[in-house]
Design brief:
19% of the residues lie in helices and 33% in strands. Helix 1 (153-164) crosses helix 4. The chain folds into 2 domains: 3-65 and 100-133, Tumour Suppressor Smad4, CATH 2.60.200; 153-323, no CATH class. The model is unreliable at 71-99 and 140-149 (pLDDT under 50). The N and C termini lie far apart (53 Å). It has 324 residues and is of the alpha+beta class.
Length: 324
């Protein structure tokens, strides 16, 4: 008897888990009604891959290269001329997944392969850890991501004072993939905001896109983000004298980067957990290029009730720890 467990260790669905045993199979993808494990990752195919557990072996099969559609769409939407376009009923978009990023196991692209204990699967912008055992695997008693303490009233006042201190316009970089509430907050407040994604792809990924938002001095959204959502990794803040259009154009340059293996990948630099690790690793010239028209970044610290303030000095990056 073989038992398998798949855990999302990185990406929008971090902490989600799927278990299966011999004689079972499970589909993993973006659409809830079609998968045993549905992950809210906009870069996953509707059904991205399938795990098959049989004969003492757990096998992965990539299904992301097939033409896939929302189940409500009519059969005729499978016609070639309607791929990648909206059906007449405007119920969905049919996506031809041919040439998509596929599935990687331990860094190697695969189509169909056997899995081993502690393998890591990467699909879309998510990573999954594999556990295999001859004994039933018990779910972990505690969540993978520990709860973060909220700021108290005095700490909130200090955080808001920090944001008003430089007298430079403040912007937010908010991650809608982190929580559906992020986009809801943007839609219910009056601040200027716009996705960093462009075109039809940007429209399709609206619910999981990074957004640039202007936060004027009297912004109720700024106060809400600090008083109620600090520590939830909703995004990062920055100071810049640049206009909105110039700043957005600059930030868009870093959405996709090239790795050491020359493969292009999405770069979630707006995630405070990523930004506070990325900036100290940059050379001075890399920092200068990345900052561009930006005077400073503010990110949540890994320590509750604190922040990192990143700016550029004569010797390169300056990192100031701020305790609220």
């Amino acid at each position: 008897m073989l038992f398998a467990q798949l855990t999302v260790i990185s990406g929008p669905g971090e902490g989600q888990r799927l278990s299966l045993s011999s004689g079972r199979q499970a589909r993993v993808g973006r659409v809830a009604c079609d998968n045993e494990l549905a992950v809210g990752d906009p870069f996953l195919a509707p059904i991205h891959f399938v795990l098959v557990c049989e004969a003492g072996v757990c096998t992965l099969r990539d299904t992301s290269q097939q033409v896939q559609k929302h189940p409500r769409c009519e059969q005729r939407c499978f016609l070639d001329e309607l791929r990648n376009s909206r059906c007449d009923a405007s119920l969905c978009v049919v996506h031809d997944m041919s040439g998509a990023n596929g599935v990687y196991v331990n860094g190697k692209r695969v189509q169909d392969c056997s899995l081993h204990d502690e393998d890591v699967i990467v699909a879309g912008s998510s990573a999954f850890a594999v556990r295999l055992s001859a004994l039933a695997l018990e779910p972990e008693a505690k969540p993978l991501t520990p709860a973060r303490a909220a700021l108290d009233v005095q700490q909130c006042d200090k955080a808001l004072a920090l944001l008003s201190r430089p007298r430079i316009p403040v912007y937010g970089l908010l991650d809608a993939a982190r929580d559906p509430l992020v986009r809801a907050l943007l839609l219910t407040h009056r601040e200027l905001f716009y996705s960093l994604y462009d075109g039809p792809e940007g429209e399709r990924l609206a619910d999981a896109a990074p957004y640039l938002v202007e936060l004027p001095p009297d912004s109720s959204l700024t106060e809400l983000l600090v008083r109620e959502h600090w520590g939830q990794s909703f995004g990062s803040l920055l100071f810049s004298h640049a206009d909105f259009k110039t700043l957005r154009r600059h930030l868009r340059k870093y959405l996709i980067v090239e790795g050491h293996d020359h493969k292009k990948m999405y770069f979630r630099f707006y995630d405070p957990r990523v930004l506070r690790s990325f900036l100290p690793s940059c050379m001075p010239e890399e920092c200068a290029e990345f900052f561009g028209p930006i005077s400073a970044f503010v990110t949540e610290s890994e320590i509750p009730g604190a922040a990192w303030l990143f700016s550029l000095g004569s010797a390169g990056l300056r990192r100031e720890a701020v305790q609220f």
